[in-house]
């Protein structure tokens, strides 16, 4: 399944989010995945704990954050969640990001090879990033993807 299909299936696209607390953004991103049985709540807690311990290594220069944790931290099924913030925020001591894609993978191989590569392929396109940032409705995000 593609990121687009997984986002739609999980009902996990949130647009125009106004939040300044990075922990709450991670919780918001996780909420539809927890509610729909893709991850346990322990997963997003692990993401927050990892960030506090190791920094926000998942924030990239392009204003994209890809928070994640190890599969054994509570992943039930491979999943993605997207949160588009109105204003960029810093995650712990990182650069700022306004496109947040939380993902969970059921095993380490999928975690690295499929999850991160799929996200990078999706977002390695400046016009697409600009269109995502301008989107006002989740349906627009689906069309862009």
UniProtKB/TrEMBL annotation:
Main localization, broad class: cytoplasm
Keyword flag Transferase: yes
Ranges of residues in domain PTS EIIA type-2: 6-145
Keyword Phosphoprotein assigned: yes
Domain of life: Bacteria
UniProt-annotated location(s): Cytoplasm
Gene Ontology biological process terms from the UniProt entry: phosphoenolpyruvate-dependent sugar phosphotransferase system
Pfam short name (any one): PTS_EIIA_2
Chain ranges passing through the membrane: none
Matches recorded under PROSITE patterns: PTS_EIIA_TYPE_2
Keywords, sorted A to Z: Cytoplasm, Kinase, Phosphoprotein, Phosphotransferase system, Sugar transport, Transferase, Transport
Gene Ontology MF term list: kinase activity
InterPro entries, sorted: Ascorbate-PTS_EIIA_comp, PTrfase/Anion_transptr, PTS_EIIA_type-2_dom
GO terms for cellular component: cytoplasm
Function (record text): The phosphoenolpyruvate-dependent sugar phosphotransferase system (sugar PTS), a major carbohydrate active transport system, catalyzes the phosphorylation of incoming sugar substrates concomitantly with their translocation across the cell membrane. The enzyme II UlaABC PTS system is involved in ascorbate transport.
The name this protein goes by in its record: Ascorbate-specific PTS system EIIA component
Organism name: Serratia liquefaciens
